[in-house]
Records
---
Amino acid sequence: MQGQMQERPLLISQLIDFAERFHGDGEIVSRRVEGDIHRYTYADAALRSRQVANALDRLSVPIGERVGTLAWNGYRHFELYYGVSGSGRVLHTINPRLHPEQVAWIINHAEDEVVCFDLTFAPILKAIHTHCPKVRQWVALCDADALPSDTGIPNLISYESWIAGEATTYAWPELDESVAACLCYTSGTTGNPKGVLYSHRSSVLHAYAAAMPDVMCLSAKDSVLPVVPMFHVNAWGIPYTAAATGCKLVFPGPALDGKSIYELLEAEKVTFAAGVPTVWQMLLGHLQQNNLRFSTLQRTVIGGSACPPAMIRMFKDTYGVTVLHAWGMTEMSPLGTLCTLKNKHLSLSADEQLKILCTQGRPVFGVSMKIVDDEGRELPHDGKAQGELLVSGPWIVRSYFKGEGGDPLIDGWFPTGDVATIDADGYLHITDRSKDVIKSGGEWISSIDVENIAMAHPAIAMAACIGMRHPKWDERPIVVVVKKPGADVAREELLKFYEGRIAKWQIPDDVVFVDAIPLGATGKMQKVKLREEIAGYTLPGL
């Protein structure tokens, strides 16, 4: 027997329609590339999104074709999120922090017909546009009088000129909810980046899930600052969840330094923010150096890479801000888990609660996960057994764009490449990337644990643990560190800091001091490049 509910597809256009109808006066605030602050409402954004859709119709961009963006978090990028996908085209957000040759490769692989870009990235496109023959229209996200004349880019128009004459009415098509809506390329795979193609259904379901109380817990009462870029897994879906809930949106634009972020947090009375640990490290440094406090910030989601326990403790104990430790991947849209306490944990001591809050948290409803051993046998969820993490769910990748890399699934499950434990309550603890895990004398050492201890030292700004070949133990860990400005710490002092915090045999054999640790396009440490930079290093005594 079939249910008797109406069959209405889940579409991205419904989100902006809902925001316009029921939260039309809700604010969207953006710091522009030009440096000024722009303000308008969800109603204004909806109107201009429809103009984008009409502009794409005028260009005769076919349904299903890709429209690329190289843009910061801002109101124009937000309009493209809805005008492109809502009209049946595919929004392709491109990470401008990649090498220009890789940007060109991605534009060509996606076969973008239109590319919209912030002026910050004009030099990239000036250098590569001749290598992108399929692009028919280049759009600079600026006013008409700010359009640069020296780029040499053909068919270049300002965004405001592009949409200015278009009608503000548009009949969003009734699409099949399973058709493509967005395309993101992941840099976390070997070889060239692989495209992950999200559907309307997966994006809307993800927006619902992200808003739940034990996830981001967003509502119309919140003022939200997504520092995580809109070119990084769709800013973790926040542009969609924001429209679904009507919360105030605050976009930081290109100014991601601690001072600029703090000024926006305070001026716009932000209650919720989201970003990667490296950005929050700059913010906390600014607060400490200037003896500042937050007046409205209540909670922040930190993901992209493991958040050091010292950062979680500092946010809570010093500034009264709850850190929601999250984990996910481009292939997961990206939410997989988010860490909040359960009722039974509320009576625990602060230290016991911190141990839980330092895990990656519990699965979001819709995500299934398991850990397996080297033979693919499922391991128990006892918080001790450690194995490769596999996931499945309605917003998790089935295959990559154009079939790149073949079938990535194992019996219907996506292998994440992470090594983890899961306890009886579902709390996930990522112990390492499978390619980073260190095996010493037949026993595993978590590089994340070694890094977190170093990060807890007051003189250390950043730490990376890598395994070095050893003739007796196969591998031994060393920790590569960057000191905080003006701080000093000796090798012996830092190694002594590990005593009592980790098993003696897991203490690194050495400390290597560097000026900087290489970061990738999404703010993650690049350990392969780090190994290249210290290629001449040998372990003490060898």
Note: The longest strand covers residues 460-470.
---
Amino acid sequence: MSIEAASDDQALSPFLLRLARTAPFLFMGVLLFGALAWRPTTAPIELETLASAWHMHLHDSLVPLRNGIPDPGIPPLLHWLILGGWQVLGVNEWWPRLVPALASLATVLLIGATALALWPHRTETPVFARLLLTGVGAFAIAMTMVEPQTLAQPFVLGSFHAIGMLWMARAAAAAPGDAPRRGRLRRWLWAALLWLACGLSAALAVLAGGWTWALVPLLCGAGALLFDPPPGGTGADRRGLSARIFARIAARIVPWLAGAVFATLVALLPAYLWLDANGPAISLLAFGNGWLDPATEASRGAAWTLLLLPAVLFPWICWKTLWRALTRHLRERLGTGFRLCLAFLAAVIVAGLASGWQLIGMLPIVCPLSLLGARLLATQAIKPKDFHAVVPGFLALMVGLLFFLMNIVPIAHLDAVWRQLFDTPLPIWLGGIGLLSGLSLLVIGYVLAQLSPSHQLSRTLQVAILPVLLMTSLNLEFHGNLRPFFDLTPVAGRLKALQDAGFSIGVYADYRGEFDFAGRLAVAPTPLGSRAAAARWAAEHPGGAIVTYFDGSPLRLPALPMFRGVARDRWVAIWPTSAVTGADSPVLNGQF
């Protein structure tokens, strides 16, 4: 350990340092316990993936199924891990939810190693990086979601980790021209192994989240060269400038870009072989691509969800200390690691936008942002009296106040005003919000906002706990009040009973398998996309049942359904096919 690194550790309280190193894993433990104990698996994304894995289990298939039909365009890695766990542990709900949590744990461990590789002389940087990552709202939300991009995140970071090791070794070595041939050969072999590791890690990211993550090595490699400063030289050296530029292109840029292209091709190879064996390989661009597959629940053409990106970056996006540190840092010359992280951020943004998953596809940006923030905070001078958590704490107070007001203002009045403004009803689960979570957020958020620790590390801990507090309050709200709205087991159980009795099941909606795993349905219901299709299917299956969604009052139904319940933000009814008399049948209306 260097003298500078040792002095950093000695300046900190041993208890504070141990607490900061342990806190990210404590945060993850609290979030995982709250999700497993109180929150049910939610539709659409989680239950869509579980339905596909459930039917794969029933049919002994390794190809993901969509409504019972093989679809090799779905990235299969998450499904394979779920199936592998079910083979050992039996079919259950907790193992699929544990898979993204384990992937998130790998991300937290790896981001500390990446920060240390980029800034080996600053031993506080890995601690800050892990705190920033586990303390961002997007990470707290996605950590326990059965969702492909959460699984892809550690592999995306792993590909950058290999590039970071290569770039830092490249910047530090700058081998002289008369270096021994054996030393140069060893460096070339080490570089080849790192490029291979980068490609293999990106390949796993491709199998988890889609082909666009193969762009990260290429874009990050090209971006690293773009952010690299040009070779220096004074006026007296201008005659040799062209020679230096040519030597740099020949000896540095060309091998670097060749390695990036090699890693990208290695990343794309598993997806190509997978599609070639199970479907037309020409559909590689559609592999996990939401733009070319808009039927996926996670990508219904809702590009407006990108506007919510600042919300999922809470609380760091509204933390004055971090922005002040960025302002000060930009006044100085950017270091090699900082410039490389900027290239990583640009690569992840491009790949996330190209994925077509809108907001969910942007999830991996929390990794480069956490690395950049860690570098800023590790050298940020603080003020002795700075109530820096006021703004993030104030936003948490606003959420608590919203929950509190939901118990004071009649939801029917809010729904009427909302319909007048936007011509659409409010989600029905808003009427189930309780008082406990709102009061908890108001009290604890106020106390946290008033604290003013003296060290930067303790201040980061103070702000990082806010998303954990918000998600824990939300999980408690699920346990006490919201679970009946989001738990689809009652509806799915009735569908299972009907299916066992010989009824054919159809769903008049853009159905993505919400009830399949919850009810352990042996056959996927038939999605009916139009009124004409529903009427035609009802005529062909006189002994069947049709599921419909509707808004409004359940007391105004035109007939008595076989079952009535709730599914997330809408009412749901199960009708006998005899009730569907034609395409204009009133039971198919979406508003009563």
Note: The two ends are 71 Å apart (CA to CA).
